[in-house]
Design goal:
A seven-stranded mixed β-sheet has the order 1-3-2-4-5-8-9, with helices on both faces. α2 (60-68) links the parallel β2 (44-49) and β3 (72-76). The protein has helices spanning 13-24, 60-68, 85-89, 93-108, 121-129, 155-158, 183-199, 220-229, 256-271; strands at 35-37, 44-49, 72-76, 113-119, 137-141, 164-166, 180-182, 207-212, 235-240. It is α/β, with parallel strands linked by helices. It has one domain: Alpha/Beta hydrolase fold, catalytic domain (Rossmann fold, 3-Layer(aba) Sandwich), CATH 3.40.50. Residues 275-280 have low confidence and may be disordered.
């Protein structure tokens, strides 16, 4: 039973379908299922896209803050996530992309303004989708064009010799992630990055982006590079210190409240007939 008064995950037919599909494919943790938050009278909505090996759980806190501000949201689940590393190893980035498009089409039925909010690889998918799935704005948490691990560029052949990268246990949140990260998935990220790099000069959506210097997963300089290469007239880029980790949408980020407030201000500024969002 949902406790959030804005949670329509179990009553919205489209979201129900997404949740049932996730369960059919093996998602057993309820908090890892897709969710939809719909505050009354909302006219704008955010499409929430989680990162690699994550689940919609990763986007719950930002979804709740958006709902409190009167902005609806739908968090989709990327295929292969929340199930097993073996399942993810078989997926292609095009399947993740299809999930993004499907979520967009669901929101388009009821909302006139749609914003993309992505975490890490979710940012890449939103950037890849902008040319065929126009959005009113993008909010990118930990965007990147390069993974820090020096072997990441060789994932295409490394996957045959070392199928999984094992990560150490960290905290209770790890039940929402895979300890064994399929190297085949990194290869798909490399393919996705190649697609995004070719599209960046053609992307004109307003964008707000955050990186943290404590990120040990991706090259944050490449995050700034991605924003600089976009053709958007409205650009906001914020970098935080060494205590800001890779996953910026969960409790471990000490700046999440500040970032969430800036996200809401950014969206509300774009919704206003006379936006107050600054151009940088």
């Amino acid at each position: 039973m949902a406790t959030d008064p804005f949670d329509h995950s179990e009553t919205n037919h489209d979201c129900q379908t997404l949740r049932q599909l996730a369960q059919d494919e093996g998602v057993s943790e309820p908090s890892d299922l897709p969710f939809m938050l719909r505050p009354p009278a909302a006219t704008s909505a955010a499409l929430l896209i989680h990162g690699f090996t994550g689940t919609p759980w990763e986007m719950r806190l930002i979804g709740e803050e958006l709902a409190n501000a009167g902005i609806a949201s739908l968090a989709v689940r990327l295929p292969g996530h929340g199930t097993s590393p073996e399942d993810l190893a078989e997926k292609r980035w095009e399947e993740w992309y299809h999930a993004v498009q499907e979520g967009y089409n669901i929101l388009r039925k009821d909302y006139s303004s749609i914003y993309g909010v992505g975490m890490s690889t979710g940012c890449l998918l939103l950037l890849a989708a902008t040319r065929t799935t126009p959005m009113n704005g993008l909010v990118l948490f930990s965007p990147y064009l390069r993974v820090l691990h020096w072997l990441a560029p060789y994932a295409g052949w490394l996957k045959w010799f070392r199928p999984y990268q094992v990560k150490p246990e960290a905290d209770n949140s790890q039940k929402h992630y895979y300890r064994r990260r399929p190297v085949a998935g990194i290869h798909q990220i490399n393919r996705l990055i190649k697609n995004v790099c070719s599209q960046l000069p053609h992307i004109t959506s307003p964008v707000l982006a955050f990186n943290g210097e404590g990120d040990e997963t991706v090259d944050i300089e490449s995050g700034r590079e991605a924003i600089d290469r976009m053709a958007s007239e409205i650009k906001e880029y914020r970098r935080y210190g060494t205590d800001a980790p890779h996953v910026l949408t969960r409790e471990e980020n000490p700046y999440r409240v500040e970032m969430f407030s800036q996200t809401i201000e950014f969206i509300q500024g774009l919704e206003d007939p006379e936006p107050t969002v600054s151009t940088r």
